[in-house]
Amino acid sequence: MESLQHLANGFAIALTWQNLLLALVGCFLGTMIGALPGLGPSNGVAILIPVVFSMGLGATPALILLTSVYYGAMYGGRISSILLNIPGDEPALMTTLDGYPMARQGRAGEALAISGLASFVGAFFATWGLVFLAPQLVGVALLFGPAEYFAMFTLAFATLGGVTSSNQAKAAFAAAIGLALAFVGVDGQTGVPRFTGGNVHFYDGIDFLIAIVGMFALSEVLVFIEERGKANSHTTAPVTELGRVVPPWSMIKDTSGSMGRGTVLGFIAGILPGAGASLGSFLAYTLEKKWVGKNGRFGKGDPRGVAAPEAGNNAAAGGAMVPMLALGVPGSGTTAVLLAMLLSLDITPGPLLFTNNPDVVWGLIAALFIGNVMLLLLNIPMVGLFTRVLRVPSYYLMPGVAMVSFIGIYALTNSTFDLMLLIGFGVLGWVFRKLSIPMVPVILGVLLGELMEKNLRRALTISDGDLSILYGSPLAVGFLTVAVIGFVAPLFVSRYVNFKKLKAEVHNDGTSD
């Protein structure tokens, strides 16, 4: 009941004209960003962070805008998956398996409507899970000391490769680079410059917003420049005949079970640090296919093959907010970007967030409910408008992304050196993409490296250098145990989850085996 009372206070904060307008704008922009192949929620949020800062918004309005973009992009990813057979982002990959065949059968409108309804169901109930689950973690706040925080950060870095990763060495390498970048600057304890190369611009460290915008947004522009003229440069004409936009009641009834099961699986996958929406979507589709068995036409245009993964990936998006808000450990790449936003606003996510900043967190959760309703109302009647976004040529879109990135960063720092640093991170992100090295560990290293170092130093100071303090409490042992499991598990899970094979199947003819 206490959570419901806090939620009511959150609605009082969210239901202002400014916050409602920001939620509407965020939902609209997010849906368009998600519909454009290649951008996805991480890039969309990263591009808009400098814009949000230049607007001078407070903590709650800024988070409402960016989380609305996040949820909107998760909704929008289904549009290009169904009409183009090109996933807007990786979580929307499974939607192509049945969504595109439905579109080729003249049922594109029904596929888009069912996917929009499934997205609403997944996100709506996942937000309720956030309401009741995240505050329960606040009770462990008093148990956290420097050693426990260090163990928690270790858990975050150990699981960054994700459950679907097949190369944990690359994830560890990326995390090491992120931590090294976090150490650049003047040491707060000794006052000695570290890794600055004698350049005074580095004395204050590297701004994580520059790293985020460069590695996510600018690297996407560089990838486009490299692939310009190739067949996969997103110039495919979409399916133009939507057909019936409102699905029949029998179809909604048949897919309701798929939505429910996908929501549960997606939410659980979202809570797991590093798993994210991709795993939620995959589990929802795979288990639904086994659940239905021979009674289904999966891979040939079965609406349940659209409903299950869409509910799964949107529920995972809500589930990923739980560890981000309650523990300060992002559950996905996009929540890592949102974590950067919180830190830049001097708000530290973690066990004490619900106590120290209840207006921010409950206003945000209330806005998620409002945003879900807005997205449902936008995505069904305005689906024709959003499909036209797919016709925007990339050679118009990508220069706009670059312009927003440069203007946004310069407006924040007023430094031409930071613009050169932005280009450097863009090139680094492009190299990482070419080598299939995850970029989220680098970002999280820049974000949490300093806090991790401070807590390690505090713990060792308390114990007079005795390392046993790092595993001296049950909570620390629990975090470290899960960290080891989270680092090793992908080596076995990857045998069963092969996204490269799935992508090959998707781009053949839109069917699965």
Describe the structure.
The chain has about 525 residues and is mainly alpha-helical. The chain has helices at about 1-15, 15-35, 40-55, 60-85, 95-105, 110-135, 145-160, 170-180, 210-225, 250-270, 275-290, 305-320, 320-325, 335-345, 355, 360-380, 385-390, 395-415, 415-435, 440-460, 475-495, 500-510, and strands at about 185, 195. It has one domain. The chain has 22 helices and 2 strands. A two-stranded antiparallel ribbon has the order 1-2. Helix 3 runs parallel beside helix 14, helix 9 (about 210-225) runs antiparallel to helix 18 and helix 18 (about 395-415) packs across helix 19.
Topology:
Layout: H1 2-14, H2 17-35, H3 40-55, H4 59-84, H5 96-104, H6 108-133, H7 146-158, H8 168-182, E1 185-186, E2 193-194, H9 208-227, H10 249-271, H11 276-292, H12 304-319, H13 321-327, H14 333-344, H15 353-356, H16 358-379, H17 383-388, H18 394-413, H19 416-434, H20 440-462, H21 474-493, H22 499-509
Helix pairs in contact: 1-16, 2-3, 2-4, 2-16, 3-4, 3-9, 3-14, 3-18, 4-5, 4-6, 4-12, 4-14, 4-16, 5-6, 6-10, 6-12, 6-16, 7-20, 7-21, 8-20, 9-18, 9-19, 10-11, 10-12, 11-12, 14-20, 18-19
Search tags:
513 residues, mainly alpha, 2 strands, globular
Describe what is shown at a glance.
The protein is mainly alpha-helical and 513 residues long.
